[in-house]
Amino acid sequence: MNRNDVHRYKTSVPTAIVEQEKIAKFLSILDERIVTQNKIIEKYESLIKGLNNILLYGTEGKYVCLGDILLERSERSRTNNQHEVLSSTVKGIFSQREYFSKDIASENNVGYKIIRLHDVVLSPQNLWMGNINYNDRFDIGIVSPSYKVFSIADGYDNQFVAAMLKTYRALYSYMMVSEQGASIVRRNLNMEAFLQLVFKIPSLDKQREIGCAISLLKSQLKTANKIIRAYTSQKKYLLRQMFI
């Protein structure tokens, strides 16, 4: 090692320490922001739960059969790949490319059911686990023929119905009208019993009030989750930089 090498080594060590101190400071700030963001998320979740309780127990209204709210449609695709192939899951509706990172549908999807914006879709085999979704993401798409697709009848607020279909009471009711099949995971939906499920529905104005509030909170919760994912990603990056 010559004199120049020694000089470079001496000057690089303090620089590395300073950089690590800066990173440590940023990490501390990020930790504080993550804690704060988690509290914000918990608050949104609590407010949504409270509104769901109001939806279930705190409103006056008339009792209506689900079959009067959801109107089944069976519009079919006529050409292959006529529209984007979508999948309904317990966590929501996704394009197959988005959810599976590839196209896994059969090569021939002629005869798939068409789903439009503001439709409701469910999986008869997995409804008991909560696989029922309101489509507010895609203008149009196609889903497996095994799915059931519905439009929402006039006189009902879409956002209210979307929230109602995901309440704990609704999920419990789905279990009651689903019969054990050959698989432990899959159950067979008794469609007639499903459409006869009864829900208490308030006035249209009240539906709109509750639906709008829940929709707004869910949008804010989604944004809050994106922010915390960004913070977590930044933290991982900075931790890697400390050990380079």
TrEMBL record:
GO biological process: DNA restriction-modification system
Keyword annotations of the record: DNA-binding, Restriction system
Source taxon at top rank: Bacteria
Keyword Hydrolase: no
Any one GO molecular function term: DNA binding
Database matches in InterPro entries: Restrct_endonuc_typeI_TRD_sf (IPR044946), Type-I_RS_S_subunit (IPR052021)
PANTHER family hit by this protein: TYPE I RESTRICTION ENZYME HINDI SPECIFICITY SUBUNIT, TYPE-1 RESTRICTION ENZYME ECOKI SPECIFICITY PROTEIN
Protein name per UniProt: Type I restriction modification DNA specificity domain protein
